[in-house]
Write the structure tokens for this entry.
Amino acid sequence: NAGVMQNPRHLVRRRGQEARLRCSPMKGHSHVYWYRQLPEEGLKFMVYLQKENIIDESGMPKERFSAEFPKEGPSILRIQQVVRGDSAAYFCASSLWDSTGNGYTFGSGTRLTVV
Amino acid sequence: SQQGEEDPQALSIQEGENATMNCSYKTSINNLQWYRQNSGRGLVHLILIRSNEREKHSGRLRVTLDTSKKSSSLLITASRAADTASYFCASWRQGGSEKLVFGKGTKLTVNP
């Protein structure tokens, strides 16, 4: 089990382009969480998904950002028309269903740079 | 709202010394976790302490939890240069949406 896989590790986009970030959870994990980390800051929750369902998107910006976790394949965080302020590290975590938050496993992150 | 505020924001010590980092949170929690992040890397889970626990040890790590003060501390004993990293607390709230809420972190530098 390779753990939570995120790709790409680094992504450079020009302003106005789209960014697609992928997260493959650990085998058997059906819960995925996306977090954003600005330079020198902590992780800010963005969205929590289960297979084919968005459970909590309270941390997602209202515009340009969307996330999905289809029945088959990785979870995708999509940022349309990127702006410089979107430059950050985006981390994905997965878990089995556990009401205590134990067992979160984080990926290594995707570092998005908008030029 | 951001839950979990660590202090100090930055800490610089000499190898062999102990490092203490504190974390405060706002709402009732089920558990509190500490993570470590090396510069430019992902997060590594260090230790979890449940709300009904007061102290927990793991190797050179000691975590305390005071639910009456809504605070936790992480102590790293006999620090090493390899402990240089950022340390974050993350709380799992009781009730509500299930997600970890992170603090802003303490940047620890251990000088050889």
About this structure: Chain B has a mean pLDDT of 89. Chain B touches chain A through 26 residues (CB under 8 Å). DSSP finds no helices and eleven strands in chain B.
